[in-house]
Amino acid sequence: MDRLPGTLSVPYEDAVSNLVWIKLVGIGNANVGKTCLIKHFCESKFNSGYQPTVGVDYGFKVQELQGVDLRVHLWDLSGSSEYFDVRNELYSGTDAIFLVYDVTNMASFESLDQWIREVKRYANGDPEIFIVGNKIDLKQKRAVTSTEGKKYAQANKFKYAETSAANGDGVLTMFDTMLQTVCDKQVGGAKRPEGAIRREAQASEIYHKQARS
Ligand SMILES: Nc1nc2c(ncn2[C@@H]2O[C@H](COP(=O)(O)OP(=O)(O)OP(=O)(O)O)[C@@H](O)[C@H]2O)c(=O)[nH]1
Ligand SMILES: [Mg+2]
């Protein structure tokens, strides 16, 4: 349909009222594969070279879930302690966090507690936390077993997933489960009235519009 540039065929508020915005944040030690997981989800790509994230990076994907197009914002936070201050500014309004460790690197697993403390301190609104053991394709180098990973997640009442950003194993399932969990909590949860997600989507879009202008 032809329309004048810069105009909408329906009022702006109506146009955005059906949009659902979801904010996911990836954290965990440097080099565990956060950027690669996001790249796989958004672009189905993998890069074997390591380019550390400087401060923060960002991905976006429209993902269909049960007939609804979700606008998924993925915040990719650097794992380096150098960027602690940058990260802490970005946790606000997060729907779910994927806390990644590298299954070939015990130190990255042992750092999970420290990441949880950072989240509890700086994220408001009680985001869902997923523990993700990444690089499962490197079977010979595995240092943390599935049982250990699952046990840690269960003890903390978090969900658990294992992935390989290199060959894609488990990646889409992990993101789908996260999105499903967020949607169930927002729309179906007893605490929140139906339609809340839409009103928040609208508020979020207005916020983004204001931030852009
Ligand atoms: N074999 C294998 N390598 C992976 C996998 N995921 C990531 N890598 C490699 O691990 C290195 C680090 O990946 P990144 O995604 O950049 O790590 P990051 O967690 O974003 O690191 P920072 O940005 O420094 O916090 C890169 O060389 C990737 O190619 C995986 O599932 N399997
Ligand atoms: Mg990165």
TrEMBL record:
Coiled-coil stretches noted in the UniProt entry, renumbered to this chain: none
Highest taxon, organism lineage: Eukaryota
Region Disordered, residue ranges: 191-213
SMART domains linked to this entry: RAB, RAS, RHO
Pfam family, one: Ras
Keywords recorded for this protein, A-Z: GTP-binding, Nucleotide-binding
Name of the protein this chain belongs to: DnaJ homolog subfamily C member 27
